[in-house]
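Quick start: read one record
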Amino acid sequence: MSNTQALQRQIAQLPALDRIALVEDILQGLDAPDKSLDALWANEAESRLAAYKAGQAKAVPLSEVMAKYRVS
């Protein structure tokens, strides 16, 4: 039995609230801030805003964006 399987069996024996807390902790660990990634997104946002202000990019209404991804 692998370590993962053993851990899954131990987790399955925990009360539901403890399992939920564990899942939340794991997800928070996966979503830890990454300053280098944040800087890249900030640069991208500034670049897009500059392009919009310069007339090099157009805005799309939110309703159009949402309609594109809405499941029929």
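The helical segments are 3-12, 16-30, 35-53, 62-69.
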